[in-house]
Amino acid sequence: MVNKVAQSGIITFNLEDYYHTGDRVVLDIKDQLFMGLILKEKDFRDWIKNHDWAQYQDKNIAIICSADAIIPTWAYMLIASKLSGIAHHFVFGTEAQLESSLFQNALSLVKIDDFLDKRVVVKGCGDKNVPTSAYVEISRLLLPVVKSLMFGEPCSTVPVYKKA
Within this chain, do residues 13 and 34 fall inside the same structural domain, yes or no? Predict the structure, then answer.
């Protein structure tokens, strides 16, 4: 019996290898609004000063305001100033946007030249929740250098790109 998959020279790229295992936390500032509508600067600054920022040590934070209110940009900047140097990573946006940002950062470290003229299959299933944005990002990075790009498993792939 001959293992044609092993002989094919296909490289499997598993996005799960780039999943950051740290905790994810949504920091919703809606409870800091006066009557759920207005951000009062003095009250907000008091909250910033007295909030336990250490609880976010090495965590990944999505900063949001789920209330339908206009929040001044500086308020988010104040939060960022407190999370800097404490949290592993933080973004303004949803937990899904946080996940995309984490993958974007991790994939920016991939040595793309290692895939020059290679046949690559991006693994399509697994145990971790990999956002679609990560598949798009790795495609963006690999397309200029690979010989071919596929999706799925080496034994059953969907062709995505083949160099002319």
Answer: no
Q: Is residue 12 assigned to a domain?
A: yes
The CA–CA distances, whole Å, from 138 to 8, 9, 117 equal 21, 19, 15
- What is the reported pTM? 0.88
What tens digit of pLDDT does each residue of 63-118 get? 999 999 999 999 999 999 999 999 999 999 999 999 999 999 999 999 999 999 99
Q: How many CB atoms lie within 10 A of CB 115?
A: 20
52: which DSSP letter?
Answer: -
Q: Strand 156-162 and strand 119-123: pairing?
A: unpaired
Is there a contact between 143 and 149 (Cβ–Cβ < 8 Å)? yes
In a domain, 93, yes or no: no
Asked if 14 and 124 touch (Cβ cutoff 8 Å), the reply is no
Phi and psi torsions of 93, nearest 5°: 145, -175
Q: Is 94 contained in some domain?
A: no
Asked whether 139 and 149 are in contact (CB, 8 A), the reply is yes
At which of 34, 57, 87 does a domain end?
A: 87
Same domain, 38 and 65: yes
Please check whether residue 139 lies inside any domain of the structure.
yes
The answer to whether 107 and 141 are in contact (CB under 8 A) is yes
Range of the domain at 34: 24-87
| pLDDT for residue 5 is more than 60 | no
